[in-house]
């Protein structure tokens, strides 16, 4: 990928996150206001879900900006890894929000509140449109963790809002006010289910785990297939950010000529076949007794 494409993608990310934050923040204020005045916990729960997404979008936007930061003598990769912590914090915030909403929902079963089904239907219906429109801003970013997380969150928000509309209709037609806390607990389950994968992925990235899209053994095999390569060892692959990967490796060659050209060729192969953009190699001429990864 050339540098102009990188700038284009970053600009698209910034616009998408900025628009998503503005639209959803405005709707959250409306939803919380109507949720409080009407006593609808499901509206407040939906607003809490949307608020967690706005916070996640804001953190992700800040992380995208940080990814463009220049390296320093202390932070040699700049602040690129901040996008990993943004994704992790976003996931953990969802879990905390779920706990608060679930606790209040359980309390509502013993202290039911009379809520207007019609108001719930109207506000949640607006939420479907806003959340789906916001999801479309991130539909092409599945290869990048924060952008993919934003897409999934907004789609789930639209689904949750649709369920809230249905609950409002049921309350309006039947007067079953226990539907409101029941739906809130259902929203909690959906949130926990949707955030679990994100938690695992972001936590693994924070621990410098190999990205799931990369098979280390396949990388080693590919390096072993290169001309004049005797042995490959000390292979380390880790995420620099949610969209960048780095690798170091020691390669034993039978020839000492043209090492610069060889290193350049390996870097091109790693980028093209494994999407590893930061490759550092140490060329050796004495073997490591057939060790593959030391």
TrEMBL record:
Belongs to the cation diffusion facilitator (CDF) transporter (TC 2.A.4) family. SLC30A subfamily. The chain crosses the membrane at residues 16-36, 87-106, 118-138, 150-171, 183-199. Residues 19-204 form the Cation efflux protein transmembrane domain. Its main location: membrane. It comes from the Bacteria. GO terms for cellular component: plasma membrane. This is Cation efflux system protein. The gene is czcD. Residues 211-285 form the Cation efflux protein cytoplasmic domain. GO terms for molecular function: zinc ion transmembrane transporter activity. InterPro entries: Cation_efflux, Cation_efflux_CTD, Cation_efflux_CTD_sf, Cation_efflux_TM, Cation_efflux_TMD_sf, CDF/SLC30A. SUPFAM superfamilies: Cation efflux protein cytoplasmic domain-like (SSF160240), Cation efflux protein transmembrane domain-like (SSF161111). It comes from Zymomonas mobilis. Keywords: Ion transport, Membrane, Transmembrane, Transmembrane helix, Transport, Zinc, Zinc transport. Pfam families: Cation_efflux, ZT_dimer. It is found in: Membrane.
